Amino acid sequence: MSGFVETLIDRFGPSVVTAGAESPEKYHHDWAGLAPVVPLALVRPRTTEEVSEIMAACHSEGVPVVPQGGLTGISGGAHPVARGIVLSLEKLDRIEGIDTDAGTLIAGAGVVLETAQEAARDKGLFLGIDIGSRGSCQLGGVLATNAGGNTVVRYGMARDHVLGLEVVLADGTVIDGMNTMLKNNAALDLKHLFIGTEGLLGIITRCVLRLHPLPPAKETAFVGCGGTSEVIGLLRTARETLGPMLSSFEVMWPSFFDIMSEGTGLGSPLAGKHGAYVIIEATGFDKEGTRTAVETLLEKAFEDGLVGDGVIANSVKEERALWAVRESPAEYERVLGPVIPFDVGIPIGKMDEAVTRIEAEVHALFPSARTLSYGHIGDSNLHVVINVPEAGQNQPEKEIKACVYGITRDLGGTVSAEHGIGAIKRDYLGYSRSADEIAVMRGIKQVMDPKGILNPGKSFDEGQAA
């Protein structure tokens, strides 16, 4: 394949194409923790036309293509294959425009999420997608994985923000679906073939995103609850009291909060220990009214015995402090060492059983294990991070995954709530999707990518990942 790489270099130049052995190490893996793989080449196209031409060449030669965005995924969806190229979309980083009348933003796949958020904010508008890696994740990856995040309870998953897409197919065909209208029922809405399918059916190059009016008021509260049942009761009360103002509802069980607050030195805004900790965020268009609504919520929650203690931020600095422990996962390696992360979905009514069973059964397998539970409970998303101290770098992934995913399956949950399947969850997809559903997915893949060159071995694809 060296001749193929040389042909690409001759055509596009070394600023676009780099031989795999000479490519920077950061493109050899994502955050999934898999062993780095040196690709055949790193390709960083500057335009949709270049993406199209590169895909046509790869299709003709049967060369696998792994698309990459900001490399913040934890499921191995952007992990390279040795015999294929890495196609980074990072140079497609232009915001083409914001229509304040229509409430839309048009941008390239390589635009960093935080950049898009700030551009919308400068126009008095709001992009409702928000995840912890906002400063480095890119829009193409966010959409290809149908990312979730902190505001899903109010604004929905990434899919819910997309009006249109431009996509390059496996053979280089460009699908111009850059719809800017909220209503467009002209036959099949093809964009949904590419949102959340991790680059297996096509490569997103541009997007049209829906924006909302920017809420000028935001209130953040941090409370301690007796346990999961009180948290669920608080969620119900928050929805009833705040209505559409409820924008975030994050829970941290003591297994997460105690370890990370101490390990990071961030401490707790509350006195004493609690059975669960919750961050509630409300946004609105009247500062006094929003504050009053949150205060009313907490008063009712105290009266009903749902909350034992709580505080409301009085400044941006205090707001950030209330979020600090929740946004500390980047500190896992320093605080815990190597971890096995999980992103599962559990029906809200079974969340208490899920947390209790997972923490107890992992402890039964490995008594020294540290099992940290937290998540976006308002949208049924539970994150679990596990470390077995004595295992060092050789964490017992097989046994731990069998335990956690088995409990998830038994409770009618999903093995992937917001981070995709990628390479690391492929063997467990059958826990959440039926054989018939997977067969349909593979049938669509065969039609869209008959040579199987797009992101082989990921998610529902039957190809080899390496």
UniProtKB/TrEMBL annotation:
InterPro entries: FAD-bd_oxidored_4_C, FAD-bd_PCMH, FAD-bd_PCMH-like_sf, FAD-bd_PCMH_sub2, FAD-linked_Oxase-like_C, FAD-oxidored/transferase_4, Oxid_FAD_bind_N, Vanillyl_alc_oxidase_C-sub2. It holds the Pfam family FAD_binding_4. The keyword Zinc-finger does not apply. GO terms for biological process: respiratory electron transport chain. It comes from the Bacteria. PROSITE patterns: FAD_PCMH. Residues 35-214 form the FAD-binding PCMH-type domain. Its cofactor is FAD. Keywords: FAD, Flavoprotein, Oxidoreductase. GO terms for molecular function: FAD binding; oxidoreductase activity. Belongs to the FAD-binding oxidoreductase/transferase type 4 family. This is FAD-binding PCMH-type domain-containing protein. It comes from Pseudooceanicola atlanticus.
